[in-house]
Design brief:
The structure holds two protein chains of two kinds. Chain A is built from 18 helices and 18 strands. Chain A is of the alpha+beta class. The longest helix of chain A has 18 residues, at about 400-415.
Chain lengths: ~475, ~375
């Protein structure tokens, strides 16, 4: 994968740039020793690494603004970083860039239960937002699998989803406002604890812009009352097609589960070995979860299981206890980790129309044989967001490249059937060069115009999202 | 001009040599009267894809809202965001189009629970001010590929581009609905009660204080759930009174009236809507000096009927939130901007976006200024 050639002028000016940053920030907030910047050389996409020029860890919006003003003045690219859990290389540095980490911005600023929002600094982790309000019966809905570690800043940058977004939506549907610091240091407030914008929905385009429009330092998030209870049911089927048909029938019946998760055989096995969730031995497994009071759950699960029975399940089992529910979800949420114990893997994130599911799984199986690499499939079936995990051996020459080619072929297939390259992980550097599979140049030009407005010098999070050849002229400008 | 296809729409915009007044069905007019040649999308009318099992619908921008609602209803589904019918309030005629709904980000009482129009919108195709066709998003409900222009275009009233196609995530229509009613609550107590209900796990899908002081709470869902939640909410709301319960069509009819602000229909005066944090609403109401008031979205949306020519923003001064002038005579709309002024750095961003999406400034020029 190609990255822009670092600007030699900036590499030469490193000590001067670091000195200016040091003058503006407390001593411990600027890191430039190569031994220490190494910790920031990659994110969750560990196949690609590059130590940055320096790392800054500001503690306030004012400090973020000061850093950005200096970098703007010096024309230094800035790579914003939440917790560094991106699977798409969204926080991959360039050698001439400054990493701006928001990890120290982790305070809760305000909670308001009457108006159902919380205002936090953006470095706060996703799970700890819920942690701040759950004793009072509330939660923050988007729940990416990395929620223990990932930061709200990164969630906003990537418009993160999770397992429960069939009912609760993704980050953009739960975000009311942000404090955004633009590349030149200008601080703007977008939105607030009210429900619609007064003019253009700038907040809507900032969310999901992969840290390329500015640095979010604070966010106002919608919090929701916790449901009275939740209960998953496990359904095993003899084939992927049957499982897919069952999902469609559940949705058509007018029942909206809070989550419908799908796993295929290789994934079921790995998760079972790892989490001992009691998953059945079968070709395809669905975890369907519903919420409400005990009686409401019985009613919904009764109807769902009635539909499932029409598809001859090889297993149909309601969770009987909190502990069993916890293990069922642990299995699913640790799918990536479980696979990682067996193999190196690459995790894809394309979305497809739910109706294309059987076709896409069949094609992936065929391609798996063509490329000679195994695949495990786990995905959010209600919304069609797939996570095929391609297994490879990083120590074997050529395996990574073959894996990447296979991954690209799967993503092309997702687009071909009417879906998209990424449902919740973001484009980052990983899928940057595939953007033209989904979008025409005019489509991408329209998106890049937004960046022209927010970051005219194209310094913020360089070389992500758009193919390099399309952005070269702008980055040089 | 009524282009028959997206290609023709693009051609017309490319070859335009003056301002264009963009129009869907013309039922949600807002802001200064648009000058320029009228460009209507009504011929871009067809439902291009509807997959009930995938909760997805794609339609041409000129498709009548009523047609879409009927097609969804036939499969027991609906648009989640309950778009209002503005004809009664604005005195407009004709057929609302789905593109117009999107251009106005029109969202009704269910906004509090199911999100706004922009939250259900998963894809758009539009033609920008240079005549270039742009697509963004798609037909799948989880999609973070590239920047989210879908949200930017929703609510931009045709000023960044003319919509040609829109895609939605739809939802099952509920098996049952019920409304709990409390009478004679002052605004402070009404907002308290609405906050308590919306902060409960009983999935309240509407909370409004009507003009006559009646405070309404709606629940929707499976039959058993609705009965259960009515019982639990009756207990919860006991502090504020003994709620009456309305079911089925009576409940649906009431929410249609709230959605369309029926209480203001046929009454003289200007209509404003204020978007605020619910708990701040009661403190603003006295200062509005309004002839009639409706609170929706648990208090977060204030509809105010005020005497003609009132500049509500000047009267209130700075507020946490914003005020939009929805209905007034043409001379008043020429004097008082419909949309709230933006802070200078935000105004600069807005100007920059308009200049790039519509470099000649021909799409509904001045409408959102």
């Amino acid at each position: 994968m190609q990255m822009p050639v670092p600007d030699a002028r900036l590499l030469d000016r490193k000590s001067a740039i670091v000195a200016r940053l040091r003058a503006a920030l407390p001593a411990d907030a600027v890191i430039d020793a190569p031994t220490e910047t190494r910790a920031y050389e990659c994110d969750g996409l560990t196949a690609y690494r590059c130590p940055p020029l320096a790392v800054v860890l500001p503690r306030s919006t004012a400090e973020v603004s000061a850093v950005l003003a200096i970098c703007h003045d010096e024309r230094v690219p800035v790579v914003p970083r939440g917790s560094g859990t991106s699977l798409a290389g969204g926080a991959l540095p360039t050698a001439d860039s400054v990493i701006l980490g928001v990890a120290r911005l982790n305070a809760v600023i305000e909670t308001n239960y009457a108006d159902r929002y919380i205002r936090v600094q953006s470095g706060r982790t996703n799970l700890s937002v819920t942690g701040a309000v759950e004793a009072d019966g509330f939660f923050y809905a988007p729940d990416p699998s990395s929620q223990l570690a990932c930061a709200i800043a990164g969630n906003i940058a990537m418009n993160s989803g999770g397992a429960h977004c069939l009912k609760y939506g993704v980050t953009t549907n739960n975000l009311l406002g942000v404090t955004l610091v633009q590349m030149d240091g200008t601080v703007v407030e977008l939105g607030g604890p009210w429900m619609d914008p007064g003019g253009l929905d700038l907040l809507g385009v900032v969310c999901g812009s992969e840290g390329q429009l500015g640095v979010v330092t604070e966010a106002t998030l919608r919090i929701l009352p916790k449901p009275e209870g939740a209960r998953p049911v496990l359904m095993g089927f003899a084939s992927n097609e049957v499982a897919g048909a069952c999902v469609s029938d559940i949705i058509k019946a007018g029942i909206l589960p809070v989550a419908i998760e799908f796993m295929d055989r290789p994934c079921i096995r790995a998760c079972e070995d790892f989490a001992h969730a009691g998953y059945p031995d079968c070709e395809a497994l669905l975890i369907v979860e519903v919420e409400g009071s005990e009686a409401e759950i019985d009613d919904q699960l009764g109807r769902i299981m009635e539909i499932a029975r029409r598809h001859d399940p090889v297993e149909l089992r309601e969770s009987r206890s909190e502990e069993e529910s916890r293990r069922i979800w642990l299995g699913r949420k640790s799918a990536f980790g479980a696979m990682g114990q067996i193999n190196d893997y690459m995790c894809l994130d394309g979305t497809i129309p739910v109706s294309a599911l059987p076709l896409v799984l069949r094609r992936i199986g065929e391609m798996s044989r063509e490329f000679g690499l195994d695949v495990a499939n786990v995905f959010h079936a209600g919304d069609g967001n797939m996570h095929p995990l391609i297994l490879f051996d990083a120590s074997k020459p050529g395996d990574l490249e073959r894996c990447e080619d296979f991954g690209a072929a799967i993503l092309r297939l997702c687009v071909e059937v009417g879906g998209c390259l990424t449902g919740e992980h973001g484009v980052g550097v990983e899928k940057r060069d595939l953007m033209s599979v989904q979008f025409s140049t005019a489509d991408m030009e329209a998106q890049m115009r937004v960046k022209d407005v927010f970051d005219p010098s194209w310094l913020m999070n360089p070389a992500k999202v758009f193919p390099l050849e399309l952005t070269a002229g702008r980055r040089a400008g | 001009m009524r282009p028959q296809s997206e290609t023709e729409l693009a051609e017309l915009i490319r070859s335009a040599n003056g301002p264009l007044a963009i129009r869907g069905g013309g039922t949600r007019m807002i802001g200064r009267a648009a000058s320029g040649e009228r460009l209507e999308t009504v011929e871009l009318s067809s439902i291009r894809l509807y997959e009930p099992g995938a909760l997805t619908l794609v339609a041409g921008a000129g498709t009548p809202l009523a047609e879409i609602e009927a097609v969804l209803a036939a499969e027991g589904q609906r648009l989640p965001f309950e778009p209002p019918d503005m004809r009664g309030l604005l005195g407009s005629e004709g057929q609302s189009t789905i593109g117009g709904v999107v251009a106005a980000n029109a969202s009704g009482p269910r906004r509090v629970q199911a999100g706004a129009c922009r939250d259900s919108l998963i894809g758009v195709r539009f033609v920008d001010g240079s005549g270039t066709i742009v697509k963004n998003g798609g037909r799948v409900m989880k999609n973070v590929t590239g920047y989210d222009l879908v949200k930017l275009v929703a609510g931009s009233y045709g000023t960044l581009g003319v919509l040609s196609e829109v895609s939605f995530k739809v939802l099952p229509a509920p098996e049952a609905e019920a409304t709990l009613l409390l009478s004679d609550l002052d605004p402070v107590r009404a907002v308290e009660a609405m906050s308590a209900a919306l902060g409960s796990p009983f999935e309240v899908t509407g909370a409004a204080r009507q003009v006559d002081g009646t405070t309404a709470f709606r629940v929707e869902g499976l039959d058993l759930s609705v009965r259960y939640r009515v019982g639990r909410l009756t207990e919860l709301l006991g502090r504020w009174g003994d709620p009456q319960v309305e079911l089925g069509t009576a409940s649906a009819g009431r929410w249609a009236e709230i959605r369309d602000v029926k209480a203001f229909h046929g009454r003289e005066g200007d209509v404003w809507r204020l978007s605020v944090a619910p708990s701040t609403a009661p403190g603003l109401l006295d200062r509005l000096d309004a002839e009639a008031l409706q609170l929706d979205w648990g208090g977060g949306l204030i509809w105010a009927l005020v005497s003609e020519g009132t500049d509500l923003r000047a009267r209130l001064g700075p507020i946490a939130g914003h005020a939009t002038l929805v209905r007034a005579s043409e001379p008043i709309r020429a004097m008082i901007p419909a949309f709230p002024p933006e802070a200078p750095p935000i105004a600069a961003l807005t100007r920059g976006l308009r200049a790039r999406f519509d470099p000649r400034g021909i799409l509904n020029p001045g409408l959102m200024d």
